[in-house]
Amino acid sequence: MKLSFLFFGNTPDEKWQLCRQMGIHNAIAKLAPELTGAPSIDDFESFSKSKDIYEKEGFNLYGLEGDQFDMHRIKLGLPGRERDIEKYHKMLENMGRLGVTLLCYNFMATGWYRTNKNISERGGALVSGFNYDTSRQEPLSKWGTFSENQIWDNYQWFIEQVMPVAEANGVKMALHPDDPPISPVNGIGRILTSAKAMDRALSLSNSPSHGLTFCQGTFTTMNENVSEMIQKHGKNGKIFFVHIRDVVGTPDNFRETFHDNGPTDMFKMIKAYKDVGFDGPLRSDHVPSMAGESNEHMGYEMKGNLFGIGYIKGLMHGCGIKTP
Ligand SMILES: O=C(O)C(=O)C[C@H](O)[C@H](O)CO
Fold first, then answer.
1. Pfam families this protein is in (predicted)?
2. Which of 72, 71, 202 is nearest to 141 (CA)?
Protein backbone atom coordinates (compact mmCIF):
# COMPACT_ATOMS: atom_id res chain seq x y z
CA MET A 1 0.00 0.00 0.00
CA LYS A 2 1.25 3.41 -0.87
CA LEU A 3 0.53 6.21 1.55
CA SER A 4 -0.29 9.28 -0.52
CA PHE A 5 -1.50 12.86 -0.12
CA LEU A 6 -3.89 15.00 -2.15
CA PHE A 7 -2.30 18.30 -3.22
CA PHE A 8 -4.27 21.15 -4.75
CA GLY A 9 -2.32 22.92 -7.51
CA ASN A 10 1.43 22.87 -8.04
CA THR A 11 2.85 25.50 -5.70
CA PRO A 12 5.12 24.04 -3.02
CA ASP A 13 4.31 25.27 0.47
CA GLU A 14 4.51 24.11 4.07
CA LYS A 15 2.13 21.21 3.36
CA TRP A 16 4.64 19.78 0.91
CA GLN A 17 7.36 20.01 3.53
CA LEU A 18 5.17 18.44 6.21
CA CYS A 19 4.35 15.57 3.85
CA ARG A 20 8.04 14.92 3.24
CA GLN A 21 8.58 15.02 6.99
CA MET A 22 5.78 12.46 7.47
CA GLY A 23 7.49 10.19 4.94
CA ILE A 24 4.97 10.56 2.11
CA HIS A 25 6.43 10.02 -1.35
CA ASN A 26 3.35 9.66 -3.53
CA ALA A 27 1.39 12.69 -4.64
CA ILE A 28 -2.15 12.79 -5.94
CA ALA A 29 -2.91 16.18 -7.45
CA LYS A 30 -5.73 18.34 -8.64
CA LEU A 31 -4.23 20.43 -11.43
CA ALA A 32 -7.26 22.40 -12.59
CA PRO A 33 -6.39 25.79 -14.17
CA GLU A 34 -7.97 27.76 -11.32
CA LEU A 35 -5.45 26.09 -8.99
CA THR A 36 -2.31 26.18 -11.13
CA GLY A 37 -2.90 29.39 -13.08
CA ALA A 38 -1.77 27.38 -16.12
CA PRO A 39 -3.67 25.81 -19.02
CA SER A 40 -5.57 22.60 -18.27
CA ILE A 41 -3.62 19.36 -18.49
CA ASP A 42 -4.92 18.31 -21.88
CA ASP A 43 -2.07 20.67 -22.77
CA PHE A 44 1.03 18.45 -22.57
CA GLU A 45 3.49 21.24 -21.69
CA SER A 46 1.30 22.46 -18.85
CA PHE A 47 0.93 18.95 -17.40
CA SER A 48 4.60 18.14 -17.84
CA LYS A 49 5.66 21.34 -16.02
CA SER A 50 3.49 20.41 -13.04
CA LYS A 51 4.93 16.91 -12.99
CA ASP A 52 8.46 18.34 -12.97
CA ILE A 53 7.62 20.52 -9.98
CA TYR A 54 6.40 17.49 -8.00
CA GLU A 55 9.51 15.51 -8.93
CA LYS A 56 11.85 18.32 -8.04
CA GLU A 57 10.11 18.54 -4.65
CA GLY A 58 10.71 14.85 -4.01
CA PHE A 59 7.29 13.41 -4.92
CA ASN A 60 6.19 10.81 -7.41
CA LEU A 61 3.10 12.23 -9.12
CA TYR A 62 1.14 8.99 -8.85
CA GLY A 63 -2.29 10.21 -9.85
CA LEU A 64 -4.90 12.92 -10.27
CA GLU A 65 -8.09 13.54 -8.35
CA GLY A 66 -11.25 15.52 -9.04
CA ASP A 67 -12.34 17.49 -12.10
CA GLN A 68 -9.25 18.71 -13.92
CA PHE A 69 -11.40 21.04 -16.03
CA ASP A 70 -15.08 21.96 -16.25
CA MET A 71 -16.96 18.66 -16.52
CA HIS A 72 -20.56 19.84 -16.15
CA ARG A 73 -21.51 19.36 -19.83
CA ILE A 74 -20.25 15.77 -19.73
CA LYS A 75 -21.97 14.97 -16.43
CA LEU A 76 -25.25 16.61 -17.41
CA GLY A 77 -25.23 15.57 -21.08
CA LEU A 78 -25.28 19.15 -22.37
CA PRO A 79 -24.28 20.48 -25.81
CA GLY A 80 -20.51 20.80 -26.07
CA ARG A 81 -19.79 17.54 -24.31
CA GLU A 82 -18.19 16.07 -27.46
CA ARG A 83 -15.59 18.84 -27.39
CA ASP A 84 -15.00 18.27 -23.68
CA ILE A 85 -14.53 14.54 -24.25
CA GLU A 86 -11.79 15.32 -26.78
CA LYS A 87 -10.05 17.28 -24.03
CA TYR A 88 -10.53 14.34 -21.69
CA HIS A 89 -8.95 11.99 -24.25
CA LYS A 90 -5.94 14.31 -24.57
CA MET A 91 -5.60 14.38 -20.78
CA LEU A 92 -5.64 10.56 -20.68
CA GLU A 93 -3.03 10.40 -23.45
CA ASN A 94 -0.84 12.88 -21.57
CA MET A 95 -1.20 10.80 -18.41
CA GLY A 96 0.05 7.78 -20.34
CA ARG A 97 2.99 9.75 -21.77
CA LEU A 98 3.97 11.09 -18.35
CA GLY A 99 3.42 7.84 -16.45
CA VAL A 100 0.69 9.28 -14.19
CA THR A 101 -1.43 6.17 -14.01
CA LEU A 102 -4.33 6.86 -11.63
CA LEU A 103 -7.33 9.10 -12.20
CA CYS A 104 -9.79 9.49 -9.31
CA TYR A 105 -12.94 10.94 -10.87
CA ASN A 106 -16.54 11.43 -9.82
CA PHE A 107 -19.86 11.91 -11.54
CA MET A 108 -21.32 14.62 -9.29
CA ALA A 109 -22.09 17.71 -11.37
CA THR A 110 -21.98 19.92 -8.28
CA GLY A 111 -19.21 18.05 -6.47
CA TRP A 112 -19.15 16.81 -2.89
CA TYR A 113 -21.52 18.83 -0.80
CA ARG A 114 -22.34 19.72 2.79
CA THR A 115 -25.09 21.78 4.43
CA ASN A 116 -22.94 22.64 7.46
CA LYS A 117 -19.23 23.40 7.42
CA ASN A 118 -18.72 24.39 11.04
CA ILE A 119 -19.87 21.63 13.35
CA SER A 120 -18.03 21.48 16.63
CA GLU A 121 -16.37 18.09 17.13
CA ARG A 122 -14.03 16.77 19.81
CA GLY A 123 -12.36 19.62 21.69
CA GLY A 124 -14.03 22.16 19.40
CA ALA A 125 -12.37 20.96 16.19
CA LEU A 126 -14.55 21.84 13.19
CA VAL A 127 -16.05 19.26 10.85
CA SER A 128 -18.61 19.30 8.06
CA GLY A 129 -22.02 17.66 8.01
CA PHE A 130 -25.08 17.12 5.89
CA ASN A 131 -28.80 17.30 6.54
CA TYR A 132 -31.18 16.31 3.76
CA ASP A 133 -34.07 18.48 4.95
CA THR A 134 -31.81 21.53 4.97
CA SER A 135 -30.46 20.67 1.52
CA ARG A 136 -33.99 20.53 0.13
CA GLN A 137 -34.45 24.19 0.97
CA GLU A 138 -31.39 25.15 -1.09
CA PRO A 139 -31.89 26.50 -4.63
CA LEU A 140 -31.88 24.23 -7.66
CA SER A 141 -28.69 24.06 -9.70
CA LYS A 142 -28.19 26.81 -12.26
CA TRP A 143 -28.56 24.14 -14.95
CA GLY A 144 -32.01 23.07 -13.76
CA THR A 145 -33.19 19.61 -12.76
CA PHE A 146 -31.97 16.24 -14.00
CA SER A 147 -33.36 12.81 -13.23
CA GLU A 148 -31.27 9.89 -12.07
CA ASN A 149 -32.02 8.11 -15.37
CA GLN A 150 -30.57 11.03 -17.30
CA ILE A 151 -27.41 10.94 -15.20
CA TRP A 152 -27.08 7.16 -15.70
CA ASP A 153 -27.37 7.69 -19.47
CA ASN A 154 -24.69 10.37 -19.31
CA TYR A 155 -22.44 8.15 -17.22
CA GLN A 156 -22.82 5.26 -19.64
CA TRP A 157 -21.97 7.56 -22.58
CA PHE A 158 -18.92 8.85 -20.68
CA ILE A 159 -17.67 5.34 -19.90
CA GLU A 160 -18.07 4.27 -23.54
CA GLN A 161 -16.11 7.33 -24.67
CA VAL A 162 -13.24 7.25 -22.20
CA MET A 163 -12.57 3.67 -21.17
CA PRO A 164 -10.89 2.50 -24.41
CA VAL A 165 -8.60 5.55 -24.33
CA ALA A 166 -7.78 5.05 -20.64
CA GLU A 167 -6.97 1.40 -21.29
CA ALA A 168 -4.81 2.15 -24.33
CA ASN A 169 -2.82 4.62 -22.22
CA GLY A 170 -2.45 2.45 -19.12
CA VAL A 171 -4.57 4.74 -16.94
CA LYS A 172 -6.71 3.33 -14.15
CA MET A 173 -9.93 5.29 -13.74
CA ALA A 174 -11.11 5.13 -10.13
CA LEU A 175 -14.76 6.10 -9.72
CA HIS A 176 -15.57 8.01 -6.51
CA PRO A 177 -19.06 7.39 -5.03
CA ASP A 178 -21.45 10.31 -4.63
CA ASP A 179 -20.98 12.27 -1.44
CA PRO A 180 -23.47 12.68 0.19
CA PRO A 181 -24.88 9.35 -1.01
CA ILE A 182 -28.40 10.66 -1.44
CA SER A 183 -30.51 11.93 -4.34
CA PRO A 184 -31.28 14.51 -5.62
CA VAL A 185 -28.99 17.33 -4.55
CA ASN A 186 -29.84 20.81 -5.88
CA GLY A 187 -32.33 19.13 -8.22
CA ILE A 188 -29.68 16.93 -9.83
CA GLY A 189 -30.10 13.18 -9.53
CA ARG A 190 -27.22 11.39 -7.82
CA ILE A 191 -26.66 7.85 -8.94
CA LEU A 192 -23.68 6.37 -7.06
CA THR A 193 -25.37 6.17 -3.69
CA SER A 194 -25.26 2.47 -2.71
CA ALA A 195 -23.16 -0.68 -3.05
CA LYS A 196 -25.66 -1.90 -5.66
CA ALA A 197 -25.25 1.29 -7.69
CA MET A 198 -21.46 0.88 -7.62
CA ASP A 199 -21.94 -2.66 -9.00
CA ARG A 200 -24.15 -1.29 -11.76
CA ALA A 201 -21.50 1.31 -12.63
CA LEU A 202 -18.79 -1.35 -12.75
CA SER A 203 -20.96 -3.54 -14.99
CA LEU A 204 -20.88 -0.89 -17.73
CA SER A 205 -17.40 -1.89 -18.89
CA ASN A 206 -15.14 -4.88 -18.34
CA SER A 207 -12.04 -2.84 -19.05
CA PRO A 208 -9.17 -3.38 -16.59
CA SER A 209 -9.05 0.43 -16.43
CA HIS A 210 -12.54 0.60 -14.88
CA GLY A 211 -12.49 0.47 -11.07
CA LEU A 212 -13.15 2.27 -7.83
CA THR A 213 -11.92 4.93 -5.51
CA PHE A 214 -12.88 3.05 -2.38
CA CYS A 215 -14.07 6.05 -0.35
CA GLN A 216 -14.55 4.22 2.90
CA GLY A 217 -16.29 7.13 4.65
CA THR A 218 -18.91 7.42 1.91
CA PHE A 219 -19.62 3.67 1.99
CA THR A 220 -19.88 3.90 5.80
CA THR A 221 -22.37 6.76 5.37
CA MET A 222 -24.40 4.52 3.04
CA ASN A 223 -24.62 2.00 5.91
CA GLU A 224 -23.16 -0.65 3.65
CA ASN A 225 -21.16 -3.63 4.87
CA VAL A 226 -17.79 -2.06 4.16
CA SER A 227 -15.72 -5.16 5.01
CA GLU A 228 -17.72 -7.23 2.53
CA MET A 229 -17.27 -4.56 -0.12
CA ILE A 230 -13.49 -4.58 0.42
CA GLN A 231 -13.49 -8.37 0.07
CA LYS A 232 -15.53 -8.39 -3.12
CA HIS A 233 -13.99 -5.50 -4.99
CA GLY A 234 -10.50 -6.21 -3.68
CA LYS A 235 -10.61 -9.81 -4.91
CA ASN A 236 -11.84 -8.61 -8.30
CA GLY A 237 -8.92 -6.17 -8.52
CA LYS A 238 -11.33 -3.25 -8.69
CA ILE A 239 -10.00 -1.18 -5.79
CA PHE A 240 -7.63 1.30 -7.40
CA PHE A 241 -7.42 3.92 -4.64
CA VAL A 242 -8.55 4.16 -1.01
CA HIS A 243 -9.80 7.20 0.94
CA ILE A 244 -9.88 6.86 4.72
CA ARG A 245 -12.15 8.91 7.00
CA ASP A 246 -15.04 8.30 9.39
CA VAL A 247 -18.57 9.63 9.83
CA VAL A 248 -21.36 9.50 12.39
CA GLY A 249 -25.01 9.35 11.32
CA THR A 250 -27.15 8.30 8.40
CA PRO A 251 -27.14 9.24 4.68
CA ASP A 252 -29.66 12.02 5.34
CA ASN A 253 -28.08 13.37 8.50
CA PHE A 254 -24.40 12.90 9.24
CA ARG A 255 -21.23 14.64 10.35
CA GLU A 256 -17.62 13.79 9.83
CA THR A 257 -15.27 12.97 12.69
CA PHE A 258 -11.67 12.18 13.54
CA HIS A 259 -10.26 8.89 12.24
CA ASP A 260 -10.23 7.46 15.80
CA ASN A 261 -13.62 8.80 16.87
CA GLY A 262 -16.23 7.19 14.63
CA PRO A 263 -18.07 3.88 14.44
CA THR A 264 -15.56 2.20 12.11
CA ASP A 265 -13.04 -0.39 13.24
CA MET A 266 -10.18 1.17 11.27
CA PHE A 267 -7.68 -1.53 12.14
CA LYS A 268 -10.03 -4.17 10.70
CA MET A 269 -10.40 -2.11 7.51
CA ILE A 270 -6.67 -1.60 6.93
CA LYS A 271 -6.11 -5.30 7.58
CA ALA A 272 -8.88 -6.16 5.09
CA TYR A 273 -7.15 -4.12 2.34
CA LYS A 274 -3.93 -5.94 3.12
CA ASP A 275 -5.60 -9.36 3.15
CA VAL A 276 -7.12 -8.84 -0.32
CA GLY A 277 -3.69 -7.86 -1.61
CA PHE A 278 -4.44 -4.20 -2.22
CA ASP A 279 -1.17 -2.53 -3.15
CA GLY A 280 -2.33 0.80 -4.55
CA PRO A 281 -2.36 4.28 -3.05
CA LEU A 282 -4.43 5.27 -0.06
CA ARG A 283 -4.86 8.64 1.58
CA SER A 284 -6.27 10.29 4.61
CA ASP A 285 -9.54 11.88 3.46
CA HIS A 286 -11.40 14.85 4.97
CA VAL A 287 -10.07 15.79 8.40
CA PRO A 288 -11.32 18.13 11.14
CA SER A 289 -9.89 21.66 11.19
CA MET A 290 -8.05 22.03 14.47
CA ALA A 291 -7.02 24.77 16.91
CA GLY A 292 -5.16 27.71 15.42
CA GLU A 293 -6.00 27.03 11.79
CA SER A 294 -8.67 28.47 9.54
CA ASN A 295 -11.46 26.27 8.23
CA GLU A 296 -11.15 27.84 4.80
CA HIS A 297 -10.30 24.65 2.98
CA MET A 298 -12.84 22.48 4.76
CA GLY A 299 -11.61 18.93 5.27
CA TYR A 300 -8.13 19.68 3.97
CA GLU A 301 -6.42 21.78 6.62
CA MET A 302 -3.13 20.37 7.81
CA LYS A 303 -3.24 19.74 11.56
CA GLY A 304 -6.02 17.17 11.19
CA ASN A 305 -3.94 15.53 8.50
CA LEU A 306 -0.90 15.34 10.78
CA PHE A 307 -3.08 13.44 13.22
CA GLY A 308 -4.92 11.38 10.58
CA ILE A 309 -1.87 10.36 8.59
CA GLY A 310 0.01 9.44 11.76
CA TYR A 311 -2.97 7.37 12.84
CA ILE A 312 -3.22 5.58 9.49
CA LYS A 313 0.50 4.98 9.37
CA GLY A 314 0.32 3.44 12.85
CA LEU A 315 -2.51 1.14 11.74
CA MET A 316 -0.53 0.13 8.67
CA HIS A 317 2.49 -0.73 10.77
CA GLY A 318 0.25 -2.60 13.21
CA CYS A 319 -0.92 -4.72 10.28
CA GLY A 320 2.66 -5.36 9.19
CA ILE A 321 2.45 -3.06 6.16
CA LYS A 322 5.74 -1.37 5.42
CA THR A 323 5.76 2.34 4.65
CA PRO A 324 9.02 3.29 3.00
O1 LIG B 1 -16.26 13.56 -0.82
C2 LIG B 1 -15.29 12.85 -0.59
O3 LIG B 1 -15.32 11.92 0.22
C4 LIG B 1 -14.03 13.12 -1.28
O5 LIG B 1 -13.04 12.50 -0.99
C6 LIG B 1 -14.01 14.12 -2.38
C7 LIG B 1 -12.70 14.85 -2.41
O8 LIG B 1 -12.65 15.71 -1.32
C9 LIG B 1 -12.53 15.56 -3.69
O10 LIG B 1 -12.27 14.60 -4.66
C11 LIG B 1 -11.40 16.54 -3.65
O12 LIG B 1 -11.38 17.29 -4.83
1. UxuA (PF03786)
2. 72
Q: How buried is residue 292: exposed, middle or buried, by Cβ count under 10 Å (0-12/13-18/19+)?
A: exposed
The fold for domain 2-318 equals TIM Barrel (3.20.20)
ipTM score of the complex?
A: 0.95
Which residues approach ligand 1 with their CB closer than 6 A?
A: 30, 65-66, 112, 179, 215, 217-218, 243, 285
- Is the Cβ–Cβ distance between 55 and 139 less than 8 Å? no
Is omega for the bond preceding 177 within 30 degrees of 0, making it cis?
no
Pairs from 195-202 (Cβ < 8 Å, separation ≥ 24): 195/219, 195/222, 195/224, 195/225, 195/229, 198/229, 200/152, 201/155, 201/175, 202/175, 202/238
Query: Can you give the residue ranges of every domain in the chain?
Result: 2-318
What are the tens digits of pLDDT across the range 273-282? 999 999 999 9
pTM for this predicted structure: 0.97
pLDDT, residue 324, reads: 80
